[in-house]
Amino acid sequence: MQPHWHHGLLMRELVDRPRIELFLRALGQAAREPGHVYLTGGATAVLFGWRTSTVDIDLKLVPDQDSVLRAIPALKESLHINVELAAPSDFIPVRSSWQDHSPFIVQEGRLSVHHFDLCAQALAKIERGHVQDLADVRAMLERGLVDGPALRDYFRAIQPDLYKYPSIDPATFARAVAMFAVGDP
Predict the structure, then answer these.
(1) CA angle 55–49–25, rounded 5-degree value
(2) Which member of 34, 54, 90, 98 has the greatest number of CB atoms within 10 A?
(3) Phi, psi angle pair for 65, to nearest 5°
(4) What is the DSSP string of 122-134?
(5) Residue 54 near residue 131, CB atoms below 8 Å
(6) Structure confidence by residue, pLDDT tens digits, 11-40
(7) pLDDT given at position 5
(8) Are 181 and 149 in contact (CB under 8 A)?
């Protein structure tokens, strides 16, 4: 299927589980050295199963690898998908141990694929506050992937570093986190 144009923008297809898996396999083949791919956002939602598709694959590479980065534009074209280099750490402070709390998904070639720290993902979504983001946080809570006390603790841990993200209003962010931790001690 060919991508189409809508109001001057290239519209790509929605990304489902098979497309994510194809993309990850191809990234693994492109890797020339060991590394990690951390999926976030819609890709996490699709792989955990509370959404059937997403508009793009958001990811973080550690370390950045030229061979992998160079493969992404061709993969976007051949799979008709959108890919963004984006992670919670671009929007909120994250704990220094985030990699240790990033669930393993699969090994593809030299790349270990993980979900970016789920508490960090949930907090970034809470901070953004979009309807889909908040629905994702509720789905994460319902599935036991995160819980209110863990979100509260994570928020307290990153609160001293919020000044590094001037677009965040700490009081508003704290109230939003508290709304998701209602009913928890």
Answers:
(1) 65
(2) 54
(3) -125, 125
(4) HHHHHHH--HHHH
(5) no
(6) 578 999 999 999 999 999 999 999 999 999
(7) 46
(8) yes
Q: Give the per-residue pLDDT at 8.
A: 44
Amino acid at 1: M
Phi, psi of 6 (to 5 degrees): -140, 115
Residue whose token pair is 């493969």 = 71
Task: List the structure tokens of 161.
Answer: 């570093």
Give the number of other CB atoms < 10 A from CB of residue 2.
Answer: 5
The DSSP output letter for 107 is E
C-alpha to C-alpha distance for 143 and 25, rounded to whole angstroms: 27
Q: How many residues does the chain have?
A: 185
Would the CA dihedral through 22, 24, 26, 28 be positive or negative?
A: negative
d(CA 98, CA 127): 18
Predicted TM-score of the model (pTM): 0.90
Burial of 9 by CB count in 10 Å (0-12 exposed, 13-18 middle, 19+ buried)?
Answer: exposed
The reported pLDDT for the residue numbered 13 is 82
Structure tokens at 49: 């199963």
Q: Which residues of the chain have pLDDT under 50?
A: 1-9, 184-185
Asked whether the CA dihedral 151, 53, 131, 166 is positive or negative, the reply is positive
Question: What does the pLDDT read at residue 105?
Answer: 98
